[in-house]
Predict the 3D structure of the following.
Amino acid sequence: MLELRGVTVRYGAVQALEDLSLRAEAGGITAILGANGAGKSSLMRAVSGIAPVVAGSVRLDGQDITSLPAPARAKLGIAHAMEGRRLFRQLTVEDNLKLAWSFGARRVALSASLAEVYDRFPILKEKARIPAGLLSGGQQQMVILSCTTIRSPRCLLLDEPSLGLAPIIVQQIYGFITDYAARSGITVVIAEQMAMLALKVSRHCLVLRRGRVVLQGPSDELRQGSDGKALAASYL
Amino acid sequence: MDDFFFSLLLAGVSVGAVYALIALGLNLTFWTTKTLNFGQGSLMMLCAMLTVWLSSQGIAVALAVLGSLVVVAALGMFIERWTVRPALKASSGSMGWVVSTLGFGIFLQGMAAKYFGSQAMAFPDVIFSAQDYVTLFGQFVSLQYLVVLAVAVALILALELFVRKTVWGQAVQAVSLDPELALVQGIPVRRLVLGSFMLSSVLAGVAGVLIAQIGGTVDPAFGFDLVLLGFVAAVLGGMGSSFGALAGGLVVGILSKLVGGYVSTAAEHGIAFALLMLALAVRPQGLFGRPEVSKA
Ligand SMILES: Nc1ncnc2c1ncn2[C@@H]1O[C@H](COP(=O)(O)OP(=O)(O)O)[C@@H](O)[C@H]1O
Ligand SMILES: [Mg+2]
């Protein structure tokens, strides 16, 4: 379980998150919705330890991790797939995976972990020795997701995994994410701009606007009725 | 082959390998922080002078070298912590580290002059003396030159193997490509940065001892030109590339010795900078510069 209490993130004069609190339970997906600039990425960066948090606390399964540097948080099991398809473009696909595994929990042997990834995404096996930056957007997203899961994380943060991908690829990616979330039972948080998609796969949902939570609740309730209108309104 | 040319060539290859070692040290910190430790020249000098001093106190030469390398490694840590980190913190992307690392180097040089005096000191023979020769292709070849060459090349190969084949080497590459991504992937970036400064200082120390071995003497001003020549080698080979550093070092070493031999020793170092200007104009990414990998 991931818990934020009164978290404020400030970049110089810009306040990206203001007194934000949330609870993301394990065993389900929590969606963070909001327009561009709402603070979704800042929230995730505050959790993984690379945002300037000036107030509040972050807890992972009850343990206060607010003062831990990013690598220590990663070691505790926080895996963050950053926005903008960040991977080591010059390293091969397999080197990206190996590196992620090496600095992860190492609960499963490397060869078995790689086999599992290649089993799930056979195309990555074909491209194993190619620099990751040369892959298509969808394939890169597969590498990035695999880099997070190969670490055997306790908490998964996915920042706009659908961004810039064709609808059919988005479906495939989201199929993998929901599958993995159900199978592993860990805490999964997804930031999305595509509201309907995120609401469909998530159990709980928060809508951000200018660094604050403006709406939250069970995803199926938000999808329907008056809340649906509220959702649309909060995007304007 | 004519004797004079051959001896120049050998000397060039030998000092060139040391320039490559210096370039490699510059590369190391460039990988982790995109900064260069211009205090390296003084670390070379200090390592060589400390070796002279320790061995004059009756310590075995090998131990004296080892002890000096430990001191230099500690200074590398100090440089990262107190000159580079504050400069980068003040504003990332600023060039404050150029001044602060160079300034610390000048401070070390001043301290060395104060405590060891500014006279040139004779450097002890570490393995072979200047009188030891072997015959290669009918030419006399100084064993000292060969040892220097062998040590430099072995260190370069070891570093290249480390970077390519080990997890920590890959982690260094990862930090050089995207430090933030490295952080969230659990790579202890801080420790790697510190380690890179220590290792880079050790490489400088080794280079200092090797050069002093060839030259036979050290003085506090020693090392200043050398780090600039190492810098030229690094840029020539492509900043960040290990084989580039080796190639750049050899080119600088051989060319400067040939110019020194056939034209004038006064032009020996000048030619390196002429080369640097030419290289920057014709091929700014260097001989082995890494192109950006991205999807077309
Ligand atoms: N590194 C940064 N420096 C300054 N301002 C930033 C930085 N990152 C984000 N911001 C600002 O913080 C706000 C929230 O951004 P972000 O968290 O990226 O939102 P989202 O991911 O929802 O698009 C925006 O106003 C953005 O301009
Ligand atoms: Mg974002």
Observations:
- The mean pLDDT of chain A is 94.
- Residues 88-147 of chain A form one domain.
